[in-house]
């Protein structure tokens, strides 16, 4: 009987601050419920996803997997977060010192991950010109790309697909799975529009009260005023998520998974260093993402 396939998946965001490190740390929690899983944080100097768990990066990492030293099991020095959840921090070397032997070191790391864990999620640094990032993207079975509900994010995702599809990168664009992340957004646009409408209405009513008090007896005044205010507010009410989705669709980019707006639960998890409950919107969504990812990986390897 053939051994079960073991997978390496990179999670990457073309823009900073879109939640890649947080999602990576939470996704491994879901995968570890049924399989041995490892979070490898390669955000050099910071180990952002490790810190989201209120943990310190594993210092031993810089002395082993990426230093070309003696062969050592990652699990022997990785942080054991849960029963099947292991986490390894960045080697704290900086991009410059790490550049010369990055490709071989990255290959060694990927081979070790495949040997020990059913699933490995790699939280990548953002700069694409860094050899570490390029090597990991090439060696990963799949690449989860985080985007948000903005035109700027949509353009970044489109540009990323163009870059990795170039011959110099030689990455199959089919490996890219785009995640639409609204979990951390504050999404105050609807409230902003509402407040502006109320303030404008109050200003008009006060002005009319002092200048034309007799108009208050005419219901047409209120109807016409409301229509005008709604019309003025309409340009501000454009749904950016629809605009972004439209641009991505034109570039033949579809979303593999949507993470719902749930900033309250996410911020509580970050502040307290714990995992999202499966009863929260984002927790349920991440559980679904883990299952979809397993299915996708199994299909890709056939």
Task: Label this structure with key terms.
46% helix, Rossmann fold, 2 domains, 302 residues, elongated, 8 strands, 8-stranded mixed sheet, alpha/beta
The stretches of 5 or more residues where confidence is low (pLDDT under 50) are 62-69, 93-97, 235-240
- Average pLDDT, all residues: 78
What is the CATH topology classification name of the largest domain? Rossmann fold
Please work out how many helical segments DSSP would assign.
Answer: 11
The share of residues in extended strands comes to 5-15%
**Globular, elongated, flat, extended or rod-shaped: what is the shape?**
elongated
Give the radius of gyration.
24 Å
Strand order, sheet with most strands:
3-4-2-5-1-6-7-8
Strand tally is 8
CATH architecture tag of the largest domain? 3-Layer(aba) Sandwich
CATH classification class of the largest domain: Alpha Beta
Order of helices and strands: EHEHEEHHEHEHEHHHEHH
**Main beta-sheet strand count, sense and barrel state:** 8 strands, mixed
Structural class: alpha/beta
The percent of residues in helical segments reads 40-55%
Distance between the termini: 16 Å
Integer tally of domains: 2
- Would you identify the CATH H-level superfamily of the largest domain? P-loop containing nucleotide triphosphate hydrolases
Protein described:
This protein is of the alpha/beta class. It folds into 2 domains: 241 residues, P-loop containing nucleotide triphosphate hydrolases (Rossmann fold, 3-Layer(aba) Sandwich), CATH 3.40.50; 49 residues. 46% of the residues lie in helices and 13% in strands. It has an 8-stranded mixed sheet with strand order 3-4-2-5-1-6-7-8, sandwiched between helices. Strand 6, helix 6 and strand 7 form a beta-alpha-beta unit. Helix 1 packs across helix 11 and helix 4 runs parallel beside helix 5. About 6% of the residues have low confidence.
